[in-house]
Design a protein that fits this description.
The complex is a heterodimer of chains A (115) and B (111). By secondary structure, chain A is mostly beta strands. Chain A is built from no helices and 11 strands. By secondary structure, chain B is mostly beta strands. In chain B, strands 2, 4, 5, 6, 9, 10 and 11 form a 7-stranded mixed beta sheet that branches. A 4-stranded antiparallel beta sheet of chain B has the order 1-3-8-7, with no helix packed on it. Chain B starts with a strand and ends with a strand. The chains are: A mainly beta (115), B mainly beta (111).
Chain lengths: 115, 111
């Protein structure tokens, strides 16, 4: 059975801290791994990773994929209260139901950043 | 450019009632999908479509129907609502193998 596991499930830090969120996966026909941020409503897209060892960066957020060890990490440096959210990891499978867009999600990591 | 829109935002149904959740996009994306999000379960795929006239089942399709007559619209129908269908429903679109845009969600309560 395909699965995506995120850890920790929740995390409380103070502003300015650096955090690392983990995502491991066991799937057949891996195509890509995606990270989303979910505040009160819809998930918003952060990164898509397809190749091992290539870091994606956007401001204080960065992510990297290890296809040999089957995991990805999402780093957030100098955290701010606005980073408080649930961070979702998802894996897209090649030919899953015939589409490359279908995702298997982890349960998310709830990050709380205290002032 | 509204992106992905969903209606209604919130709905209460009685067991056995039917209803349609609407999803529309104005980005001309071929790929559209429906997910449900439940506490402790994460997001799970219900149905998806890779273009007008083409739909298929996801992980949890039972009790739901979809159709795709146009590129823009992808409605989700609940045939006979059950309390187990109480959830938050998200419509999502994408292109190039990347599910990038989610609608604001519909919160459904089945009594």
């Amino acid at each position: 059975e395909d699965k995506v596991v995120q850890s920790p499930l929740s995390l409380v830090v103070h502003e300015g801290d650096t955090v690392t969120l983990n995502c491991s996966y066991e799937v057949t026909n891996f195509r890509s791994l995606l990270w989303y941020k979910q505040e009160k409503k819809a998930p918003t897209f952060l990164f898509m990773l397809t190749s091992s060892g290539i870091e994606k960066k956007s401001g204080r957020l960065s992510s990297i994929l290890d296809k040999k060890e089957l995991f990805s990490i999402l780093n957030i440096t100098a955290t701010q209260t606005g980073d408080s959210a649930v961070y979702l990891c998802a894996v897209a499978l090649t030919h899953y139901g015939g589409s490359q867009g279908n995702l298997i999600f982890g349960k998310g990591t709830k990050l709380s950043v205290k002032p | 450019n509204a992106g992905v829109t969903q209606t209604p935002k919130f709905q209460v149904l009685k067991t056995g009632q039917s209803m349609t959740l609407q999803c529309a996009q104005d980005m001309n994306h071929e790929y559209m999908s429906w997910y449900r999000q439940d506490p402790g379960m994460g997001l799970r795929l219900i149905h998806y479509s890779v273009g007008a006239g083409i739909t298929d089942q996801g992980e949890v399709p039972n009790g739901y129907n979809v159709s795709r007559s146009t590129t823009e619209d992808f409605p989700l129908r609940l045939l006979s609502a059950a309390p187990s269908q109480t959830s938050v429903y998200f419509c999502a679109t994408g292109q190039g193998g990347k599910t990038q845009y989610f609608g604001p969600g519909t919160r459904l309560l089945v009594l």
